[in-house]
């Protein structure tokens, strides 16, 4: 793919944002339905099983997603080199997938404590194979975000239909798990076939292990560490407390992850371009700065909004029975900012610069902190303890990785434009507080809070001449005139 034919970052961001929006429609529509139909305990079983299998997915992928995007982007204009590289990484992925299955079955059938989760775990385990076959990282390396979005829309729409056809009572949580697998992995075979448009993928024995294994192992270990402090809370809640608390935390953590996903969809499109641009430190620094500005402009109001109307969000998405999830959601909203700053420092700077070892060190220490604090605090504070440990872990990674970016690029998270965005957040606070005080109806109150907050934030940012707000306005005017 030549530079001239490469899609613009703006278009990629729009398509990635639309793709994430489509992905969020599935849980936003299904969560209110399934949380009421399945009940707290079955939601707990579903979430525990999903989280359990996710660890083995990380083992199977072995850092392929991050490493594959970074290295494939560098050779994507040479079809032969790209085919050779992709085939080697795909072959490694198939070997690790087989090993991951062996480990999963050994644990699942070797420990009786997993007996009540076996059926659901086995359904989710099919994602191990389909994730490898899907080679999504190839499409991201070639910046094929339009294809990803269209494909995702088709399978999410089909999954929605299957959900309402198949899931009707508490005993249908296994069917819900199967629908979820179809929604996320249904396109894997299609992906594999369609990838021939860019490169030829085949199983090969000619693998340059000495080149690939070190970065793959480090990136895999780092991904596992991140996953530990993001999802071990659910696993440990299930083992230390009971399914009721897992069900509550499933709601707050799902909302938290959805909010993070929205932001990452807007920002992650720059990763292939950053991998190519790393040799030009000036352009690299400019792009990283723009990413930080975009993150501040969208993340700050999102965090403030979630914190202030967490009760309303939980009640609308899950119902009154899950209102106990609101305090943990407030706590997790704080973790969003820490996570985004950590992501920029790690994924946008350290990893493109080939310093994945430092990223791994930070996440490894954070995982240890998270697990240790969970053992101490969960028996005392239950759900809220899991949220607090996530904030602490994300905060540590943010500080560590930001310090390690010195000498590569000077990332400024807080500056004049950040202050303008924070001033805009004051408007959000005023609108949310007033709507709570004067409006009793849940849905009207939430709608007024969301729409009014967005309007107040935009007005204040425009009046203060926030650069990001003005840029978005100018882009919108250009598109409208076309």
Structural class: mainly alpha
Q: What's the domain count? A: 1
Task: Tell me the number of helical segments per DSSP (H or I, 4 or more residues long).
Answer: 19
Main β-sheet description: none
- Approximately how much beta-strand content do the residues carry? under 5%
The radius of gyration computed from the alpha-carbon positions, rounded to a whole number of angstroms, is: 22 Å
Mean of all residue-level pLDDT scores? 85
Low-confidence stretches: none
Tally of extended strands? 0
Distance between the termini: 27 Å
Assign a percent range to the helix content.
over 70%
Topology pattern, helix = H, strand = E: HHHHHHHHHHHHHHHHHHH
Shape: globular
Explain this structure.
- The chain has 482 residues and is mainly alpha-helical.
- The protein has one domain.
- Helix content is 82%, strand content 0%.
- It has 19 helices and no strands.
- The protein has helices at residues 9-61, 64-75, 79-110, 118-134, 136-141, 145-166, 173-185, 188-194, 209-240, 243-267, 271-277, 281-308, 310-318, 326-350, 356-381, 383-404, 416-438, 442-463, 467-481.
- Helix 1 (9-61) packs across helix 6, helix 13 packs across helix 18 (442-463) and helix 15 packs antiparallel against helix 16.
- It is globular, with a radius of gyration of 22 Å.
């Amino acid at each position: 793919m030549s530079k001239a034919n490469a899609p613009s970052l703006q278009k990629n961001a729009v398509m990635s944002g639309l793709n994430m929006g489509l992905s969020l429609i599935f849980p936003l529509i299904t969560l209110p339905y399934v949380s009421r139909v399945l009940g707290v305990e079955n939601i707990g079983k579903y979430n525990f099983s999903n989280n359990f299998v996710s660890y083995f997915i990380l083992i199977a992928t072995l850092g392929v997603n991050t490493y594959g995007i970074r290295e494939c982007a560098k050779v994507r204009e040479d079809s032969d080199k790209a085919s050779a590289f992709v085939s080697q990484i795909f072959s490694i992925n198939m070997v690790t997938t087989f090993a991951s299955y062996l480990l999963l079955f050994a644990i699942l059938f070797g420990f009786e404590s997993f007996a009540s989760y076996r059926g659901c775990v086995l359904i989710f385990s099919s994602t191990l194979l389909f994730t490898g076959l899907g080679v999504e990282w190839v499409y991201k390396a070639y910046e094929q975000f339009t294809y990803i979005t269209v494909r995702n829309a088709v399978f999410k729409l089909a999954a929605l239909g299957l959900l309402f056809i198949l899931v009707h009572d508490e005993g249908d949580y296994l069917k819900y798990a199967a629908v979820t697998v179809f929604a996320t992995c249904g396109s894997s075979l299609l992906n594999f076939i369609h990838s021939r448009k860019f490169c030829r993928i085949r199983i090969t024995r000619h693998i340059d292990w000495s080149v690939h294994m070190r970065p793959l192992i480090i990136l895999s270990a780092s991904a596992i560490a991140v996953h530990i402090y993001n999802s071990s809370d659910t696993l440990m809640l299930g083992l230390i407390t009971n399914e009721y608390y897992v069900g509550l935390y499933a709601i707050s953590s799902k909302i938290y992850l959805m909010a993070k996903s929205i932001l990452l969809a807007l920002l992650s499109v720059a990763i292939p371009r950053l991998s190519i641009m790393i040799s030009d430190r000036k352009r690299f620094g400019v792009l990283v700065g723009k990413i930080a500005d975009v993150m501040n402009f969208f993340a700050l109001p999102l965090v403030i909004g979630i914190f202030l109307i967490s009760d309303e969000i939980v009640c609308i998405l899950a119902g009154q029975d899950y209102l106990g999830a609101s305090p943990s959601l407030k706590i997790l909203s704080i973790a969003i900012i820490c996570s985004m700053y950590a992501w920029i420092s790690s994924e946008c700077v350290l990893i493109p610069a080939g310093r994945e070892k430092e990223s791994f060190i930070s996440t490894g220490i954070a995982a240890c902190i998270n697990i240790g604090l969970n053992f101490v605090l969960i028996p005392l504070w239950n759900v809220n303890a899991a949220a607090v440990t996530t904030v602490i872990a994300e905060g540590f990674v943010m500080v560590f990785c930001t310090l390690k970016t010195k000498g590569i690029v000077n990332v400024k998270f807080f500056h004049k434009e950040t202050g303008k965005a924070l001033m805009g957040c004051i408007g959000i606070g005023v609108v949310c507080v007033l709507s709570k005080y004067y409006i009793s109806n849940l849905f009207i109150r939430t709608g007024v809070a969301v729409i009014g907050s967005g309007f107040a934030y935009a007005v204040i940012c425009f009046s203060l001449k926030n650069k990001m707000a003005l840029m978005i306005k100018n882009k919108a005017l250009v598109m409208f005139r076309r």
